[in-house]
Amino acid sequence: MTDDTQPTPEEFADLESLLQYFIEENQEFLSWIGTTVEHIGKGTMTLSVPYDEKLSNKRPSPSGDGRADLHGGIAATLIDTAGGLALRTAMDNPFDARIATINLNVNYLRPAVGDLVATANVIRVGGSVGVSEIMVESTTPDGETREVATGQGAFRIFRPE
């Protein structure tokens, strides 16, 4: 592979490393927030973003010792990204289609004050539309993992003609 060519899917050991490469090389925002591909399976995938104060909403804490909450847009980004990418894992030819979000629903359950982990599960992949459900979890300062957001995405699938 030279500097002016893109690698082919066959050059990667697995789908996780291919998607991680894609995020790092082509998705500036996802790369900037530290998005990592944790797991990929048929119809499911897990992405994570580490806690970083630059992604938080700083606000006064009555005790002054609380960790700032992560901005809700980071959880929404994970819901959108994991939901769309998970659809590819349920397709016969995951690289032959383009996918665009057409509807995104996010329900925030509690503040996130630790690393975020989003797991997406495909509900349906149709000819032109796919739907995924996504759960986002975060680790609390005492080490407990809690659900912080849920979401559902509908995605337009543009298949080759």
Automatic annotation (TrEMBL):
Keyword Metal-binding on this protein?
no
One GO molecular-function entry: hydrolase activity
Superkingdom of this protein's organism:
Archaea
Q: List the CDD domains hit by this protein, alphabetically.
A: PaaI_thioesterase
| Keyword annotations of the record | Hydrolase
Q: Which Pfam families match?
A: 4HBT
Q: What is this protein called?
A: Uncharacterized domain 1-containing protein
Species, as recorded: Natronorubrum thiooxidans
Q: What is the lineage of its organism?
A: Archaea, Methanobacteriati, Methanobacteriota, Stenosarchaea group, Halobacteria
